[in-house]
């Protein structure tokens, strides 16, 4: 399907936490750009169009996307991970969906400064 180090998200050019509307817009833009009718006889364009279709089919379906995302959890930074899987984390922890207080996590810039200072 896609190159070895690419993800379905990179095929569509969206982030790992992109909402469905952003995924849909990226798909439509890329599908128009790489449609085989615009590139008659170009096998590269045909393969690219197929990659775009496959990525969209997985990422637009919430269940398939969740399954796919679990395989990519190592690519998310802490804030993105918590934002994406908040419901799952709170449910698995037995906590109410409306936590009493939210702990502030340091930004990636702040973490980088801490790592460089150490």
From TrEMBL:
Gene3D superfamilies tied to this protein? DnaJ domain (1.10.287.110)
- Give the top-rank taxon of the lineage listed in the UniProt record for this protein: Eukaryota
Alphabetized Pfam families for the sequence? DnaJ (PF00226)
Q: Name one GO cellular component term.
A: nucleus
All copies of the J domain together span: 7-72
Alphabetized InterPro entries for the sequence? DnaJ_domain, DnaJ_domain_CS, J_dom_sf
The record's SMART domains line, in alphabetical order, gives: DnaJ
Q: What is this protein called?
A: J domain-containing protein
Organism for this UniProt entry? Tetradesmus obliquus
């Amino acid at each position: 399907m896609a190159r070895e180090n690419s993800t379905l998200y990179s095929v569509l050019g969206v982030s790992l936490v992109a909402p469905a509307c952003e995924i849909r817009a990226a798909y439509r833009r890329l599908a128009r750009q790489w449609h085989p009718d615009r590139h008659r006889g170009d096998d590269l364009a045909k393969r690219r169009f197929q990659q775009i279709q496959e990525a969209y089919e997985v990422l637009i379906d919430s269940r398939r996307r969740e399954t796919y995302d679990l395989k990519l959890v190592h690519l998310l930074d802490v804030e993105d991970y918590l934002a994406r899987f908040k419901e799952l984390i709170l449910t698995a922890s037995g906590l109410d969906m409306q936590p009493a207080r939210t702990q502030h996590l340091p930004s990636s810039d702040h973490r980088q400064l801490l790592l460089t200072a150490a």
